[in-house]
Amino acid sequence: MTAAHINGHELCPGNAGTTLLEIVVWTALLAGIGSPAVMGFLTSTRVMSEANGQREVHERARVLIHRMEREIRLAIGTSMETRSDGTALTFTLPLGFTQVGVRAGSAIRYELEIDSGEASNGIDDDGDQLSDEGQLTRTNLVTGERVVLASNLDLAGSSFVKANDTMVLTLSCLGFLRHSGAIIKASRTRTVNPRN
C-alpha cells in the first residue's frame, strides 16, 4: 500500500491510515471515560430534581400556613370556633370599629375536606398512592365564595385546634418525587392569637 500524497508531500509518512484495532481501542477508552461522566451527570440531575420536589412541598405548606395565620390574626377573637374533629375553623373578620367595639364583617370558614373516592380509613381508596388525602378550602359564608387553596393534604396530619383564645393550625402537605416515585410529607404547625 502506498501513502497518500498531495502536491508531492506525503500526508502520513509511514502510515497509510488507521487500523480497525486502533478504532476499537480508542472507542473503548472514550466509553470508559465518558460513561462515568454521563452517569454522574444523570445522577446529579436526578438528585437536584428530587431536592426541588421536596422544596416545593415544604414551600406549599409554609405558604398555606402563613396565609391562614395572617387572616386569623385579623379575626375577632371571640368569634373563633372549630369543629370537634378539628377539620373546620370558622371566624369573623372585623368590618370596622365603633365607639362600642368591633363591627362584625364577613364570616370565613377554612375546611379540610376529604377527596372524592377516598374514605377516612388509612387506606388508598382511589389508587393514587396517597391514603386519606384531601384539600383545604376557604369559604366566605356571607358571599358564598368558595376557593380551594390546596390539594394533596394529609388529613390525618392536619387539624385546627382552639385552646382558649389561641388557635393551633397544623397542615401536612403531600407530594411525589418524580424519579423515585417516593411520597414526601411536609408539615407545619403555627399557634395564632387573633388581635381583635
Give your account of this protein's structure.
The protein has one domain. It has one helix spanning 20-74, and strands spanning 5-6, 9-10, 81-82, 88-97, 102-114, 133-140, 146-154, 159-163, 166-176, 183-192. The strands form three sheets. A five-stranded antiparallel sheet has the order 3-4-5-6-7, covered by helices on one side. It has one helix and ten strands. Strand 6 and strand 7 form a beta hairpin. The longest helix is centred in the N-terminal third of the chain and has 55 residues, at 20-74. The mean pLDDT is 83. It is an alpha+beta fold. It is elongated, with a radius of gyration of 31 Å.
Helix fraction by DSSP (H/I, runs of at least 4): 25-40%
The geometry reads as elongated
Q: What is the N-to-C succession of helices and strands?
A: EEHEEEEEEEE
The total beta strand count reads 10
DSSP strand content: 35-45%
Mean pLDDT: 83
How far apart, in Å, are the first and last alpha carbons? 99 Å
